[in-house]
Known about the structure:
Elements: H1 9-15, H2 23-43, H3 47-63, H4 70-77, H5 80-88, E1 111-112, E2 126-135, E3 145-150, E4 170-174, E5 180-186, E6 191-192, H6 198-206, E7 211-212, E8 215-221, E9 228-234, E10 253-254, H7 260-263, H8 268-274, E11 277-280, E12 283-285
Parallel strand pairs: 1-4, 2-11, 2-12, 9-10
Antiparallel strand pairs: 2-5, 3-4, 3-8, 6-7, 8-9
The structure holds fe (ii) ion.
Amino acid sequence: MRDLTEENLTEVVIRKLGDTDDPRLKQVMSSLIQSLHAFIREVEPTQDEWLEAIKFLTEVGQKCTDERQEFILMSDTLGASMLIDAINNRKVDDATESSVLGPYYRASAPELEYGDSINITNEGDSLEVRGLVSDQYHNPIKGAILDIWQTAPNGLYDVQDDKQPDMNLRGKILTNRDGRYFFRTVRPASYPIPTDGPVGKMLSALGWHPNRPAHIHFIVSAKGYKPITTQLFIEGDPYLDSDAVFAVKNSLVANFIRPESDSSQNTPSNSASTLQNEINYDFHLEPTPRAQS
Ligand SMILES: [Fe+2]
């Protein structure tokens, strides 16, 4: 391995993978090395530019804490997260479409009852969310778990905001015997992803805005079905067509509707204070493949 050149270096590095036992690691690293070298040949970075790139990745790592994941932000804003999501969750028939998990999920959300509120503070515009969890053929699934999280009206998750109680706007709710779920919350707000780190600097340099349309996150799971990680968006949001993390799909955009009781009210003068927003949205899960016997 001497006298390596621009022409033969890639081939020599890949040949070295012949000593690697793990076939998947070998495949991944071979592709990574080829793509990386192809990128370098195409861009021809100066040495200063390459050091700048290494400095950027170093800062991304240094920005990460238990509450802040700058690498996920980088992956999300470059479209990598949604591409990986699309490859791993190819749409099957009527199954609900997936979207990215995002960096603010907490596995330990409180278990709540049907109809409970996930809003601990009582601040914000009330919102009721209800619907059916079923299989692809609309057969209800009893006991499905909906793991839910969202921002407060100020656009912040509890982990970003000292003023919010712990676990505010998070909860786990089961479907009832008819496969239906119902919870109360507040209208989520569109929000900018954090811009005080290297990813924010990158967005600014590219002239890309950091905003995400308002959404509610869900992980819906049930025994015998493939869990679905997704987000529910609200029609009319100004960022639906320019989401900073590319996560919007048409099938995940819901309209506000008014509760049935309000349609019978004949007192519009006081309806503004009594009306609350409601979303009806059904989730369809795909069965997990049966084990081969
Ligand atoms: Fe989010």
